[in-house]
Fold:
Amino acid sequence: MELLNVEVLRALVRDVVRDELGKAVRDDGYMTVAEAAAVARLKSATLREWIKRGRLKATHLGRRLRVTRADLDAAMAKPARRKHADSIEARALRESAKVLGQR
Structure:
């Protein structure tokens, strides 16, 4: 029977500890961004952008971002901002006001 190398044993212990810590966090109702993206059927990049803009609340647990299901549901319920469409509507209103003002 072969003895385990110290570095191999250290790596195994590290992996087991990470897995167990990850399970404990998920049991508390938190999801990783990737897990939340899978639930929402969106890309992780989209959720990260929502977090950056404040649309989705996230918590740092260590160096990793975590999201609750309730926060994800709340973000999904918010109407999407249509910046481009809003600017087109505003421009149309301004142009029509100019035309009406000239009469």
The two ends are 97 Å apart (CA to CA). The mean pLDDT is 82. The beta strands are 30-32, 59-61, 64-68.
